[in-house]
Backbone:
């Protein structure tokens, strides 16, 4: 079990899949969201949680005021756990679970902006064994779905290299917590002018 750290559902527990996922620890989530909240990057934003696992990151964002959250998870059991967590927390009006592969979702009409709105905050938390080339392709496909002031959080092992970034994204900062590295990305400045 994991728990929602803060917000309207703070303290509530959520289920995690029995196998096949590596949930972000409560400590890492608490540190990450303190950083995001400090910069006002959660409340009122459309949030995308790729490789969602239990949905803990997206559900934390919903608890902290995200306007809309999409959890994308291809593993059947994990997607079911996401649906159960959304239902148990009473967040069906805010959180959508999409049981698809990340690449297929990003290439689909489902990921297209809703009424011109793109995603303002994205969590990319793939299995640590996902290859760097696959991660780069996912980030490249993601770039067209981002608001001009969007932030993308990529979670990797500290033993993994820094993600190779596609044109349009740049590294804002990297934070390390034990075995976990969080790479916070933002739109490159020249993209801001074109958006």
Residues:
């Amino acid at each position: 079990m994991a728990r929602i750290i803060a917000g309207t559902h703070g303290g509530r527990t959520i289920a995690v899949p029995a196998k096949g996922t590596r949930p972000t620890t409560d400590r890492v989530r608490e540190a990450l969201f303190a950083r995001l909240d400090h910069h006002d990057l959660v409340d009122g934003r459309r949030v995308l949680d790729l490789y969602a696992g239990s949905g803990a990151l997206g559900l934390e964002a919903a608890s902290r005021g995200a306007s809309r959250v999409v959890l994308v998870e291809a593993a059947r059991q994990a997607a079911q756990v996401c649906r159960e967590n959304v239902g148990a927390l009473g967040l069906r009006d805010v959180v959508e679970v999409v049981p698809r592969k990340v690449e297929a979702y990003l290439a689909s009409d489902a990921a297209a902006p809703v009424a011109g709105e793109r995603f303002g905050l994205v969590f990319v938390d793939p299995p640590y064994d996902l290859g760097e080339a696959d991660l780069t392709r996912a980030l490249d496909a993601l770039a067209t779905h981002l608001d001009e002031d969007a932030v993308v959080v990529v979670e990797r092992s500290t033993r993994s290299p820094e993600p190779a970034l596609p044109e349009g994204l740049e590294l804002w900062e990297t934070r390390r917590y034990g075995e976990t590295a969080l790479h916070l990305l933002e739109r490159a400045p020249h993209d801001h002018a074109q958006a």
User: Anything to note?
Assistant: The domain at 2-194 is CATH 3.40.50.150 (Rossmann fold). Residues 76-89 form the longest helix (14 residues). The chain has one domain: 2-194.
